[in-house]
Each structure stands twice: as C-alpha cells, then as structure tokens.
Amino acid sequence: MWFCPFCSNILQVEPTRFVCGTCPYQQPISSSRKQRFPQTRKRVDDVLGGAEAWDNVDQTDATCPKCNNPKAYFQQLQIRSADEPMSVFYKCTDCSHQWCQR
Fold it and tell me: What pLDDT, on a 0 to 100 scale, did the predictor assign at position 71?
C-alpha cells in the first residue's frame, strides 16, 4: 500500500501512476521501487502484575509439574466473567516455574 505524503490517504492505482483521491498528489509507477516500514512490537504487560505480585502470597501443597517440588506459592485472580470460577495461579518455591489451574 502506498500513502499520500501530504494528506496520508491511501493512493489509488491508475495504469501508469498513483493518485491521491483528496489532494492533487500524483506519483509515477516504477517497478523497482519498494518501501518498507519498520515494525515495532508493542510491549506486553504481565497479566499477573510482575515479580512484586508474588511478594506476599501464601504457600500450599501443590506439586510442580517441572521439578516435582511439593510446595508452591498461589494466588487467585478473576480473569473471566463474574459467573466463571476464579483462576488459581501457582509459582514453585524451588524453581519458580509458573502454572495455572482454571
């Protein structure tokens, strides 16, 4: 897609040129011209609140699926609608592996 450098509208394609539909801008079509735009990814927020969310949580008897440690920290969060049960998130006390039970 090509965009007008003056009004930022999408340029329409005619047989020999690109034409803007709102302003008088025109650009001849050349087959060797390519334009790339840098793609930047948006930073994803941690759903559980980051490392400080696990500071003051309780422990329970839950076996870690990664290292078979019998103890884990846990917290409950409502991540679905109100009529759904809460999700329980676990973090191993030994290897810090995280998993959830829905």
Answer: 94
- 3-class secondary structure, 27: strand
- pTM summary value: 0.52
Q: Which of 61, 59, 68, 56 is nearest to 97 (CA)?
A: 68
**Burial class of residue 64 in the structure, from the number of CB atoms within 10 Å of its CB (0-12 exposed, 13-18 middle, 19+ buried):** buried
Report residue 68's pLDDT band, with 50, 70 and 90 as the boundaries. very high
- The number of folded domains in the chain is 2
Count, residues in the chain: 102
To 5 degrees, how large is the angle CA 11–CA 13–CA 18?
A: 60
Query: Are residue 55 and residue 85 in the same domain, yes or no?
Result: yes
